[in-house]
C-alpha cells in the first residue's frame, strides 16, 4: 500500500467508508454476501465499524489510514506493502497505528513490508530492518530485531538496536562523559 493507494480513499469523497473497502472486492468475483462479510470483518478489525456510512473527508487522518488498511486486507493478500503510511500523522496517532499494525500482522498472519525513514518506527515494528544505501538503492545492512512482541520504546534492547541503526548511517556520536560527584 503506497501513498497513492492511501490517497485514493480521500479522492473518492462520494464513496462511503464501506464502499471504499468494497472497491477492490468488486473485481474479485465474490458474491454480495461474501463481500459484506469481508467488509464487516475488516472494518471491525481496524476499529471503524461505527464509521461505515461516513465519507473519507469526514474522517481524521488516522481513520483514513485505517480505511486504506481495511481495503488492502479485504482482498486477503499474502504480503501487505506499506510505504510510509503514518508519515503525515501526529505522534500519538502514529504510535497507536504502529501498535495496531503489529497486532494486525499477527492476528491476520500477514507479512508486512513497511517502508519508513523513522528509525524508531522501524525498530518498533520490525523483525528485521533492511537499511538501504541512497542512489542507487542497495542493501547496506540487515539488522535482526530480537525483542519480545510487546516492545518498550525505552528499554535497553530497543535503544541498543536503535543505536545500531544510527551507527550504520554514521549518525552515532560517541561522547566521553565525565561524571562529577
UniProtKB/TrEMBL annotation:
InterPro entries reported in the protein's UniProt record: ABC_transporter-like_ATP-bd (IPR003439), ABC_transporter-like_CS (IPR017871), ABC_transporter_ATP-bind (IPR050166), P-loop_NTPase (IPR027417)
Keyword set, alphabetical order: ATP-binding, Nucleotide-binding, Transport
Pfam families reported for this sequence: ABC_tran
GO molecular function: ATP binding; ATP hydrolysis activity
Domain spans labelled ABC transporter: 1-159
SUPFAM superfamilies: P-loop containing nucleoside triphosphate hydrolases
Domain of life: Bacteria
Protein name (database record): ABC transporter ATP-binding protein
